[in-house]
Design a protein that fits this description.
Oligomer: single chain
Number of strands: 7
CATH topology: Aspartate Aminotransferase, domain 1
CATH architecture: Alpha-Beta Complex
Shape: globular
Number of helices: 4
Strand content: 25-35%
Largest sheet: 7 strands, antiparallel
Structural class: alpha+beta
Number of domains: 1
Mean pLDDT: 93
Helix content: 25-40%
Distance between the termini: 25 Å
CATH class: Alpha Beta
Length: 142
């Protein structure tokens, strides 16, 4: 069985973020770094080359595949900010309806810029996602 390709690295989030372009994306990423640190109380860690994660959990599927993954986090991509805050098995429609402009993936949220969303609602969503994740897996600081 193959290993998870997205694993912790030794690169610091600050080093990674210093290279993010354009400057507005870098600035908003630094805001998200502080936001996630404040919400989770956890130190940021790089997962793979471009994901900044907070906390981690060990998963084991019925298929036998298992591994470790970040509990929550984000990635500043060229097209948008990708937020990894939804475990993928809960309905957060009531919160998402109040969030602002976004697109939804299976377990991630895509936003163009922070001005498009309500940061208080985002904090609520992150907390709800972490609480639901902790019901299924043992979540810990990374």
């Amino acid at each position: 069985m193959s290993e998870n390709k997205t694993r912790p690295t030794e690169t610091t989030p600050q080093t990674f973020l210093s290279s993010v372009e354009p400057e507005k994306r870098r600035t908003q990423s630094l805001e998200l770094l502080k936001f996630f640190e404040d919400i989770t109380g956890w130190k940021a860690r790089m997962w793979g080359p471009s994901i900044i994660g907070f906390g981690e959990y060990h998963y084991k599927y019925d298929s036998g595949r298992e591994g470790d993954f970040l509990a929550t986090g984000f990635s500043p991509r060229k097209a948008n900010l990708v937020l990894y805050i939804i475990p993928g098995y809960q309905d957060y429609g009531d919160i998402l309806d109040r969030l602002g402009k976004h697109k939804l993936g299976k377990s991630c949220l895509y936003i163009n810029k922070l001005e498009d969303i309500d940061m208080d609602v985002l904090a609520e969503l992150v907390r709800a996602g972490l609480a639901d994740l902790a019901k299924k897996y043992s979540v810990k600081a990374s």
